[in-house]
From TrEMBL:
Heme binds at residue 318. GO terms for cellular component: membrane. Belongs to the cytochrome P450 family. PANTHER family: CYTOCHROME P450, CYTOCHROME P450 93A3-LIKE. Its main location: membrane. Keywords: Heme, Iron, Membrane, Metal-binding, Monooxygenase, Oxidoreductase, Signal. It is found in: Membrane. Pfam families: p450. This is Flavone synthase II. Its cofactor is heme. The keyword Iron applies. The lineage of its organism: Eukaryota, Viridiplantae, Streptophyta, Embryophyta, Tracheophyta. One of its GO terms (molecular function) is oxidoreductase activity, acting on paired donors, with incorporation or reduction of molecular oxygen. It comes from the Eukaryota.
Amino acid sequence: NRPNHFPPGPRALPVIGHLHLLEPLIHHSFRDISSRYGPIIFLRLGSVPCVVASTPELAKELLKTNDLTFSSRQMDSRAITHLTYNSSFAFAPYGPFWKFLKKLSTFELLSSRALSQFHPIRKNELQHLLQHLLNKSKLGESVNVTQELLNLSNNIISRMMLGIRCSGNDSQADDAKTLAREVTQIFGEFNVSDLVWFCRNLDFQGFRKKYEDVHRRFDALLENIITNRELARKKSGGELQAEDLLDMMLDTLEDQNSGVEFTRDTIKALVLYWENPLEFQPERFLKSNGDTVNDTAAVDIRGQHCQLLPFGTGRRSCPGLALAMQELSTTLPAMIQCFEWNLVGPHGEKINGDGAVDMTERPGLTVPRAHDLVCAPVPRQLDIIQHFLIGV
Ligand code: HEM
């Protein structure tokens, strides 16, 4: 059932193809199949053909040398289309609409100018987090670090985008937080109807009902935020300076010379092949010149050498890299400089010793950890914390 020039792979079953070989942790299944059939394999996910490449050389071949050929995401998910107003940046096919959004995000929304403009928001949210950790430590309470970091990034992104916080005391913050979690969960879920053609109109997992409900609530929240902002802009008689990304996008909506269809829905939508891969060997990520590791080089997170690809590489690589790295390089050092972190077990008990952090994964778009990281923070030196709280 495979033309001769296709890469090797296991025998496919009629209709479902190789779906029966895939476990919920899909990257583990790809690794296991690749270890039997080689670094490039061909699979059929229901009726969707799929090639899995697992060496830096092959990744380079596909994502750099031939990146134009592979620059569209072959995703045909009804949930994603519905939830993203069929105008998603991340899932858009390569073409004029994607190019327009790429330009807008690179030169406007996530440009270095925009990132400096939003520096006060990031500083304020970090101070908020440190103050919260200090309060918890004074009470001798533990902190769900996974949840706190999620709140931090959700707050920063929603303040940059829409001028609202995702965690706080008002109901809008609550709605936004719940919806953000539900939307990303649906993105990571596996819908049989998308992959098996004769199930296309069936909804035996209740999936369609779920994503339509999430979409309805998401739309109502966004409509409310956009309408309020439009009213505020009207009231100010054009005096309101662009303060967040929503203002920038409303400016784009008003200026219809962009050459692509930019609608209200577009605004809403914007809202390795390693040896022993399971061993912790950070040196494998050192930037290399050809095959030789350069001692002074930093870890290559931009994926130039296709060895470590946290942000992808090529045309479709992540436009949020600069923002993510700015956040990471301030938040992590601040948390480590200000506090010692004692691991807390599932029953609230303090855990001593090394290597006790549970790194088990659960399925999801971002390879999330199965169990949240819970720790008890202990302040190192109060004057260091005060320094951060006053002037990060
Ligand atoms: C540590 C944080 C982050 C990681 C690890 C990450 C990772 C990724 C990865 C792996 C991709 C797919 C790349 C590919 O297909 O080659 C991606 C795409 C994308 N990311 Fe990120 N990302 C992060 C933060 C962000 C942030 C902060 C934003 C925006 C505020 C963002 C916006 C996007 C968008 C819009 C795409 C789709 C780009 C396209 O399809 O052309 N990401 N990201």
